[in-house]
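User: Is it possible to get a 3D structure for a protein together with its bound compound? The compound here is PBG. I've pasted both below.
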Amino acid sequence: MTIGQHPATRFRRTKASPSLRRLVRQTSLGVDDLIWPAFVRDGTDDETPVSSMPGVSRLTIDRVVKAAREAADLGVPAICLFPYIDASFKTETCEDAWNPDNLSNRATRAIKDAVPEIAVMTDVALDPYNINGHDGIVRDGVIVNDESVEALVKMALAQADAGADILGPSDMMDGRIGAMRSALESAGHTNTCILSYAAKYASAFYGPFRDAVGASGLLTGDKKTYQMDPGNSDEALRLIERDLSEGADMVMVKPGMPYLDICQRASDTFGAPVFAYQVSGEFAMIKAAAANGWVDGDKIMIESLQAFKRAGCAGILTYFACDVARALG
Ligand code: PBG
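Assistant: Yes, that's possible. Here is the predicted structure of the complex:
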């Protein structure tokens, strides 16, 4: 199509008023697009602020239930749980990960009991339970794939048993989606969704999260033998295609804003719902700049999330979810 010449074409006509701008807006951010990640800790009626994530705290189960109630009342469709596991439960074999009564599973049950309408998403990765901070089992310094997948399958089943609606494998082991899907089917969990962290990069943007879940000091080495190289793009599409073919219902790109090109390619290529994770480092940068008065935090919060909708995402995991829901009214 050729673009008409001035003055037949004036792009400013449709920008002239708020109503016209709303009318022609191609994509919009809504409360339905949001998944709210929350950190859970042990104890009662208490919380611990996460210093690198202003406004975010680790909540005890009773408080996370209250927060889930608030989120649901604001219209947020899903909450994603990340447990802060006490050091005494961390081992090399990670068995607390599939304990039916571990912190995450207790929190899931409590939320599904009190706030059944909010979807609960859980994280399937061994790092909170692993003495060395890795997402898979480590043997002689090597993160072993197939043994990790066996552990992850047990973990996924325990989470589904506890009532999780969406499992979020964030471990990046090969073959875990297929193994989890067939185990879920065999166990009768035919409606449990898998939102695969399919294109998850080895990123420094996860720093504040590792503080939040208490994994920072523990991690030996890095996660580059399983998470993606930031230089790669085509591999993300191959991973997404692989995970969808193994039974993932939805896929994720992570981190978010620095990887918008991947969000766009993924949503252009596959019909499946693509989610972005606006990770802890992205959140912390916005909060820090806003706290210094260098940017308008509320405006950047919305604009940074609108970008994901423009890039074709179905939704976003964001620590801003409840703030956004309030801002959108
Ligand atoms: C670990 C996991 C990580 C995040 C979610 N799940 C960190 C990592 O891979 O080291 C990061 C989330 C964030 O930074 O907000 N399985």
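The two ends are 39 Å apart (CA to CA). The longest helix spans residues 145-162.
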